[in-house]
């Protein structure tokens, strides 16, 4: 899937003169129609990536296989995905290693799952939990489309993490836990049960109110080390002769990461000595800053865009189609030798 001549069923990225990428799946006899003309897939099949091809109207395109980052940004989605800049941080901060036993929730569209699966490799395991069955379907198809076959170490469980994790994961058997969901504090008991002593738990949250709620829940549990948080801002640059400067636009906010590690049972966390005067959080503070009612943590109150079942079903069908095409390409891909 990643080397050798381009084959039917494989995804390729066509980049036009303006740098705009379009991703297509190669098919025998296939054609790619745009307002700039028609490009026959035959012009690409059997060629090596990196070529520049012209369509019938003479419009030229640079041809490359999509990288993981490109794939994630062009794949069908239900839920909002974790962007590559954050996935990269998560893999590093959570210290995901080849062979690791990792737990993840929610799966959403499977973007973060792809980075986690790459990092655990063939001998690691990723147990992913998702409460929406339609989202789990989209994620499964996206992961299969990317790898060309189901990943041997990946299992997806439908249901709430807090209910399903104790059923499927032996106590203390997870090396790492990564959560991307609305109310990760609801999973604290399940995570502390599943995570091995010293195991890392990283959460990705979109708002400071979630960050604060989760931090205080972790602290008051006394089961974890002092949590640490950061966000990553990525600024791209314009590179043109002497006009070398930051681009005018940037993605200013995606989310915050919060990382902590499981203490051994019967241990109490070290109270870190802080230089600044420590501010103790009282119940009153929490009440004024956070909603007292736990039911108030909804997609609507956090201004996240809810995804309708119809939209999710359409994305699932599209993802399934790409995965089926990728699976047909995969056996051939293994037989073809790269003769460059
Ligand atoms: C923002 S999306 C995850 C996106 C995903 N990380 C990706 O990169 O594609 C959050 C997901 O968490 C799921 N979810 C929320 N709470 C959950 C829970 N307690 N257990 C399992 N899934 C949950 C939601 O249904 C939603 O699909």
UniProtKB/TrEMBL annotation:
SUPFAM superfamilies: S-adenosyl-L-methionine-dependent methyltransferases. It holds the Pfam family TrmI-like_N. It comes from the Bacteria. Residues 321-340 have a biased composition (Basic and acidic residues). PROSITE patterns: SAM_TRM61. Keywords: Methyltransferase, S-adenosyl-L-methionine, Transferase, tRNA processing. The keyword S-adenosyl-L-methionine applies. Residues 307-340 are annotated as: Disordered. Residues 71-239 form the tRNA (adenine(58)-N(1))-methyltransferase catalytic subunit TRM61 C-terminal domain. The keyword tRNA processing applies. Residues 308-317 have a biased composition (Basic residues). This is tRNA (Adenine-N1)-methyltransferase.
